[in-house]
Amino acid sequence: MATNYELRHAAHPNDVKNYDTKKIREHFLIEKLFENDNVNMVYSLYDRVIAGGAVPASGKLTLETIDPLKANYFLERREIGFINVGGAGKITVDGTVYELDYKEALYVGRGNKEITFESNDKQKPAYFYFNSAPAHVNFPTKKITKNEAEIVNLGTPETCNARTINKLIVNSVVQTCQIQMGMTELKTGSVWNTMPSHTHDRRMEVYLYFEVPENQAICHFMGEPQETRHVWMKNYQAIISPNWSIHSGAGTAAYTFIWGMGGENLDYGDMDVVQPGDLK
Ligand SMILES: O=C(O)C(=O)C[C@H](O)C(=O)CO
Ligand SMILES: [Zn+2]
């Protein structure tokens, strides 16, 4: 059982213009978050958001602090949001047990000392995906199911972008300092997410793609709107989107993804939209 972390520095958009495929992937793609009996995470210096995955396969796992935090425990100065993208499991927060089924979320506020993870069935371990950001206030812990989410249907089959946005950890549902998280489900036959695309200089964003059918892939688009680049991604891979970057994708089939943000505001609708005809 191990906690593994990687630190990712922030890059200037003028530098990123010159990145080749390998370098773009090294800086922004997170290839392996989910590994049996490990807690893997990437600490991004974009808004100090951490994206991680915990897979309690053979026993209990603990969310340990990591050295760059210089904290006595992970949530000493942070908050965290979880969404379960695997089998049913439990997250215990300072002795209180929260059962999390597939696609259910949990927000845990600053100041909670011991967070542990368990799966209900070892054959089908839970995959607890998380995003964490610095926090200045201790808000109460809250479980959020899809029934409690704010749901928005966007797009059309004609433009291949019909999708349901489940806003799980947003300020209309739960109080947070910086973190917002939700899940967007593409309708069968639709492949485009976040089209028209957008940027929001106020917040960074991370996407985790899942429910990508076998032998299918996602072509994720990033970069400044007039200087875009693509990154081919597989099931259960995540990608960091800097504040200056679009974050949009097309799959070779329908899929689901989790979006998570941290930064200057909690205003989901604060987006600078870029129409398809204006992208380069
Ligand atoms: O499909 C979409 O559109 C999204 O899910 C967009 C994300 O929620 C987002 O980028 C929020 O800023
Ligand atoms: Zn966005």
Automatic annotation (TrEMBL):
Key word NADP present: no
Cofactor binding note from Swiss-Prot or TrEMBL: Binds 1 zinc ion per subunit.
Pathway(s) it belongs to: Glycan metabolism; pectin degradation; 2-dehydro-3-deoxy-D-gluconate from pectin: step 4/5
Annotated binding of Zn(2+), by residue: H198, H200, E205, H247
Catalytic activity: 5-dehydro-4-deoxy-D-glucuronate = 3-deoxy-D-glycero-2,5-hexodiulosonate
Pfam families tied to this protein: KduI (PF04962)
GO MF annotation list: 4-deoxy-L-threo-5-hexosulose-uronate ketol-isomerase activity; zinc ion binding
Annotated keywords: Isomerase, Metal-binding, Zinc
UniProt cofactor(s): Zn(2+)
InterPro entries cross-referenced by the UniProt entry: KduI, KduI/IolB_isomerase
EC number: 5.3.1.17
Claim: Isomerase is one of the keywords in the record: yes
Any one GO biological process: D-galacturonate catabolic process
Domain of life: Bacteria
NCBIfam families, alphabetized: PRK00924.1
Family per record: Belongs to the KduI family.
Function: Catalyzes the isomerization of 5-dehydro-4-deoxy-D-glucuronate to 3-deoxy-D-glycero-2,5-hexodiulosonate.
Entry protein name: 4-deoxy-L-threo-5-hexosulose-uronate ketol-isomerase
Source organism: Pinibacter aurantiacus
